[in-house]
């Protein structure tokens, strides 16, 4: 039955499109307002970063329909582990670390632009109306009115356009205008407001690597990393077997920063010095570096996420965080699927209850994954050469192998399960203590006392699983999209 309630979704990025699709399943009238032009018209073929889809993202897509999940999975490439490219005299010095013991422990690489175009098309097919070139300027929350300054295509004059809807969803990303309006409104209402924005002082830039020749031995079903301490390069495969490369560098601070690398000569020298095996395969890296924009990274913690039944923030608009756990989009997709479950359950009680329950359920999870992504960043920057840290990681693999029903790493829980991020974070803290105790005074896994390990797991981890109703079958989300065999080139 058609539902005349009008949902205004601001931002037709990944989260906004998926949310629009879910809302159409409830038969609401849905309008998406997007500041950019239609990305499907992008003549450059839509340059963009790549991201990895993991369990939570796949579950949210499947929750719409197999048709959508299949369309998306078709444009992904499974990656089964990380290939680390060391800097050494031999340019082919690499180490491969599988994500897990089975091929099911893979993630799925996808172009953000391509994913966005698939979701947009699906949203339109589901009946969402999409207004492109509609940058919102502000929201009148009281009257649920959205304000836009638009340009008349003939006279090029600016004019104001407004739309009044029944409920507003802010899915306008990390720089969200909806969030600004929501926080301002809440403050004016005398509510306690959290508004923390933590810039990381790191930036990123997208570059490309055309499909490498076979002799380059680039494993297409792998994430490639060139770790260089305070800066690194990462490559994720595309389905035509080319790679999208992301360079991470400090924003400022001398030669090894975006500020310092400011001429073609410096860029050429930097890449040839630190990434000699990669540059051989990247014919346009200097031009791309000089032309492509630099993006900046940071974390946002805000509260509240909702105002009554008027406005809810979803995706990066509520919880933008750094990409070092590969979870931003997955978290946004999980926001949407949880919102849909809550809507199903509380619809009868009205949208205020739905918004309240959504915020109650997701805020702590958004904070947890934002903090875990920062932990990962610090680990990458300071601990990857630390012997104690490496020993703890090796012990962790051994514990997962010896006690598969009782021990699962935080990484696997975050990327392969549906266990809440806040619980994953708590598990990580318990595991830190166990690993620290087991590694004390040891230099190799062979020296570890595994009877003590079992005792510690029984004492600290098992009660946590029990208290939170988590069993070993929750350690891995299973879906038909996970391959049973490692793909071959
Ligand atoms: C380098 C990098 C690597 C990443 N890797 C991963 C990964 O591996 N896995 C993962 O899950 N996530 C990853 N992410 C995070 C992921 O890209 C984001 O979490 C995701 O794009 C968020 O989707 P969103 O729709 O909430 O926000 P966005 O993608 O930012 O979309 C917001 C939309 O709103 C529109 N908009 C903005 N302002 C306005 C306005 N005023 N009016 C109207 N529309 C507006 C924008 O044009 C855009 O279309 C990565 C991010 C970066 C930067």
From TrEMBL:
GO cellular component, one term: mitochondrial outer membrane
Ranges of residues in domain FAD-binding: 6-366
Cofactor(s) in the UniProt record: FAD
Alphabetized UniProt keyword annotations: FAD, Flavoprotein, Membrane, Monooxygenase, NADP, Oxidoreductase, Transmembrane, Transmembrane helix
GO biological process: kynurenine metabolic process
Family matches, as InterPro entries: FAD-bd (IPR002938), FAD/NAD-bd_sf (IPR036188)
Record carries keyword Cytoplasm: no
Spans traversing the lipid bilayer: 6-23
Molecular-function GO terms, alphabetical: FAD binding; kynurenine 3-monooxygenase activity
Protein name per Swiss-Prot or TrEMBL: FAD-binding domain-containing protein
């Amino acid at each position: 039955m058609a539902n005349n309630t009008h949902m205004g979704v601001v931002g037709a990025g990944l989260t906004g499109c998926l949310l629009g699709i879910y809302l159409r399943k409830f038969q609401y009238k849905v309008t998406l307002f997007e500041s950019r032009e239609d990305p499907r018209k992008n003549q450059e073929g839509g340059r963009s970063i790549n991201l990895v889809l993991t369990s939570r993202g796949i579950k949210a897509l499947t929750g719409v329909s197999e048709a959508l999940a299949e369309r998306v999975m078709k444009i992904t490439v499974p990656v089964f582990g990380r290939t680390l490219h060391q800097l050494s005299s031999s340019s082919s010095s690499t180490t491969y670390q599988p994500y897990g013991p089975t091929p099911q422990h893979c993630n799925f690489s996808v172009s953000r632009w391509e994913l966005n175009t698939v979701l947009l098309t699906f949203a339109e097919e589901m009946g969402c109306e999409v207004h492109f070139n509609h940058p919102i300027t502000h929201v009148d929350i009281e009257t649920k009115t959205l304000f836009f300054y638009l340009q008349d295509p003939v006279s090029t004059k600016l004019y104001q356009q407004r739309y009044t809807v029944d409920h507003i969803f802010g899915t306008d990303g990390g720089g969200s205008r909806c969030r600004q309006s929501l926080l301002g409104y809440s403050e004016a209402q005398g509510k306690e407001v959290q508004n923390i924005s933590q810039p990381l002082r790191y930036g990123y830039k997208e570059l490309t690597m055309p499909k490498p020749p076979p002799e380059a031995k680039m494993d297409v079903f792998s994430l490639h990393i060139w770790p260089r301490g305070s800066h690194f390069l990462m490559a994720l495969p595309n389905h035509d077997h080319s790679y999208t490369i992301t360079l991470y560098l400090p924003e400022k601070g001398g030669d090894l920063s975006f500020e310092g690398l400011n001429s073609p000569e410096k860029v050429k020298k930097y890449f040839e010095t630190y990434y000699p095996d990669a540059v051989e395969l990247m014919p346009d890296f200097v031009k791309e570096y000089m032309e492509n924009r630099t993006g900046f990274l940071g974390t946002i913690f805000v509260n509240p996420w909702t105002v009554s039944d008027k406005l809810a923030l979803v995706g990066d608009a509520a919880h933008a965080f750094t990409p070092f756990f590969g979870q931003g989009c997955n978290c946004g997709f999980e926001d949407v699927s949880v919102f849909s479950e809550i809507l199903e359950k509380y619809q009868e009680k009205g949208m205020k209850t739905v918004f309240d329950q959504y915020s109650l359920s997701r805020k702590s999870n958004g904070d947890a994954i934002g903090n875990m992504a920062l932990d990962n960043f610090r680990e990458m920057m300071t601990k990857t050469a630390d012997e104690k840290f490496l020993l703890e990681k090796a012990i962790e693999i051994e514990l997962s192998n010896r006690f598969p029903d009782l021990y699962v790493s935080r990484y696997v829980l975050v990327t392969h399960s549906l266990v809440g991020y806040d619980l994953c974070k708590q598990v990580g803290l318990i595991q830190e203590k166990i690993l620290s105790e087991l590694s004390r005074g040891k230099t190799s896994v062979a020296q570890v006392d595994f009877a003590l390990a079992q005792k510690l797991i029984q004492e600290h981890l098992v009660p946590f699983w029990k208290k939170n109703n988590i069993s070993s079958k929750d350690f891995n989300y299973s879906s038909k999209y996970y391959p049973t065999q490692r793909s071959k080139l």
